[in-house]
Amino acid sequence: MASSTFRALEAVLPPLLPTAFWVADHDGERRRYGTTGAQAGFTLHLTYAGSLRSMFLPPTDLNLGEAYVRGDYDVEGDLVSAMGVARRIAEATPRGVDRIRLLRRLYQLPAPRRATVPGAELGGRLHSRARDSAAVRFHYDVGNEFYSCLLEEGLVYSCAVYSDPEEPLAVAQERKLDRVCRKLRLQPGLRLLDVGCGWGSLAIHAAGRYGVTVLGVTLSEAQAELAQRRVADAGLADRITIVLRDYRDVKGAFDRVASIGMFEHVGPERLREYFDTIHALTAPGGLFLNHGITKTGAARSRSMTRRTFVGKHVFPDGGLSDAATAMRGMEAAGFEVRDVEALREHYALTLRAWVRNLETNRDRAVAAAGEAAYRTWRLYMAGSADNFEAGNLGVFQVLGSRGAALPLGRSWMEAEPLAVPR
Asked: CA 132 → CA 192, 318, 322, distances in Å?
């Protein structure tokens, strides 16, 4: 059976791979694949005789992901590199006669163990307020303790901004928060709306460093509760209000609006509503910063359905659009696009740091949310890191204006933070 396993694997692997790795079957036989002379970056452990059949039949990312969550295979070492090999296998999947030969080899292996892997089960109309709330709760109900295992003390759940690939994540996240505040030209007396405020990190930074008043909104009860405690602990309850509310139900006009990492939850179908709503909430003379993940390639948008691993197990009802579509949406709503910054490489570094943190804190993460959650998030973040490195995903900060006057150049966005007395 071992020889059948390795014959099937060798039929799956593309001829040229940019890394080296080991494969160990369930009986302990090991073989090395990939670049000759390179140091092996990971070991793929096939945990039983039908592992490969479980992974590649049917050949979908949902099937491959659920096989990992079930424990049909494991990866020791650099999971990001392993996801790169999986992506190249998908890109090189044969057609015609060669595909039939491949399928025959996989079907010669024992039948897989098909244990159910539960995912999101959402009812109601797509992107209704009730369904959006349920989707957000599914994503964040994995728990604050679990998120602290990967995000570190700052609890910043979005792309960091690095000046050096080796610098600590906390330093890069602090720079990102300050970059957002500088782009929005925050100063005492201004009112900031933080859409999808997470655990309050941007609100605390903006109010504490720049003296603004902040309203933060989230649909996650767990986030709101912890954000409120963090605001109180920072002594900023007089400047920051955190509420459990859909951004579409916010009233008033704000001098500045920030949406950091919330754009992905909106879905391509609702971008016009999203930008129109944000425009109405931005006062004349105000600024809006949208920080969100985008997709690249020929298709302009991609919804995360239950047929994908991310759509079923991580981001139900979310979706990605390309950067041009997002900018056109901002302009159609009435914003003037004033600055665009691509941060793709920065998100690859951020995700690699999160994966390392999660692996380091494995026992605590499993105790907080269970083995399946740990494996789901390890795989999701590693796969995302690989796709950012490969250029399949991007992330952009786009600054929109409702008539705000801005200085020339871009140096003012990267200056040291203002020292605002409290």
From this structure: 23, 9, 22
Q: CA 399 to CA 201: how far, in whole Å?
A: 20
Residue 138 has pLDDT above 70, yes or no: yes
Which three-class secondary structure state does DSSP give residue 99?
helix
Task: Give the β-pairing of 73-77 and 40-46.
Answer: antiparallel
CB-based burial of residue 308 (10 Å sphere; 0-12 exposed, 13-18 middle, 19+ buried)?
middle
Alpha carbon distances (Å) from 115 to 71, 170, 305, 380: 10, 39, 21, 20
Q: What is the pLDDT of residue 418?
A: 44
What is the Cβ-side half-sphere exposure of residue 162, based on CA atoms within 13 angstroms?
18
Half-sphere exposure of 251 (CA within 13 A, CB side): 0
Q: What is the 3-state secondary structure (H, E, C) of 287-322?
A: EEEEEEEEECCCCCEEECCCCCHHHHHCCCCCEEEC
Gap between the Cα atoms of 147 and 152, Å rounded: 8
Helix runs in 199-337, H state only: 201-210, 221-233, 263-266, 271-281, 309-313, 323-333
Record the tokens describing residue 65, joined without a space.
């992901």
- DSSP 8-state code for residue 158: S
Does the structure show a pLDDT above 90 at 181?
Answer: yes
Q: Which of 385, 393, 421 lies closest to 83, judged by CA?
A: 385
Is pTM beyond 0.85? Reply is yes
Q: Which amino acid is at 315?
A: F
Q: CA nearest 87: which of 323, 386, 354?
A: 386
| Structure tokens given for 49 | 């005789």
Task: Sketch out the chain's domains with CATH numbers.
Answer: 2-107 (3.30.1050), 129-413 (3.40.50.150)
413's tokens = 């966005």
Q: Tokens for 212?
A: 């603004």
Closest CA to 197 of 250, 156, 252: 156
Q: DSSP code of 127?
A: T
